[in-house]
Amino acid sequence: MKKFQMHRTLANNMNENDGNRVRQIFDDARFVRSLGIELVSFGKGWCETRVQIAPALEQQHGFVHAGVLMTLADHTCGGAAATTTPAGYDVITVENKVSFLRPAPGPVLFCRAQVLRAGKSLIFVEAEVTFERAAERVIAAKASSTLAVIPLKVE
Q1: Cβ(99)–Cβ(142) under 8 Å?
Q2: Residues 105 and 74 sit within 8 Å (Cβ to Cβ)
Q3: pLDDT tens digits, residue range 67-104?
Q4: Residue 1 DSSP one-character state
Q5: Sign of CA dihedral 117, 93, 49, 137
């Protein structure tokens, strides 16, 4: 019980080290960077990202490729989950489900992920991928992700 309470106390106090860890998650992910996914903002239990859509990210019909939407949601969920882990820990995806609700035309996609439950070893997160149309945000995809809490590598 004491270990669980300690985890909760650490997870409820986001500090600058947590912020640095979230930024590092995005800086260190070469594939995510190659797609142009940018960290926009984050806070305790949530994360927001965006990606400018280049022609190379489109599928054969001119819409944003499903793999881009899935990667955007997955990594944003990881950023949100990381804000809830104690010092010395990180997260890794163990399950991801994405429902594609409509084609995403670009030119910019946005994603917001929100932690629904942060447990000691697993964190459950939901995300929405949206685009702007007629001055409003339209949902292109909805994702749910389960992430495992893992110790950071010490080098």
Answers
A1: yes
A2: no
A3: 999 999 999 999 999 999 999 999 999 999 999 999 99
A4: -
A5: negative
Tell me the per-residue pLDDT of 127-144, one tens digit each, with 9 for 90 and over. Answer: 999 999 999 999 999 999
Q: 114, 100 in Cβ contact below 8 A?
A: no
Give the type of residue at 20.
Answer: N
Take residue 82 and report the two structure tokens written for it. Answer: 């990381």
Nearest to 98 by CA among 58, 56, 65: 65
CA-based nearest residue to 149, from 105, 84, 104, 98: 84
CATH 3.40.50.2000 for the 2-151 domain, yes or no: no
Tell me, what amino acid is at 43?
A: G
Q: Give the domain ranges of the chain.
A: 2-151
Tokens 């947590």 belong to which residue? 18
Q: DSSP readout, 39-73?
A: EEEEETTEEEEEEEPPGGGB-TTSSBPHHHHHHHH
d(CA 56, CA 85) in angstroms, rounded, equals 35
Amino acid at 128: E
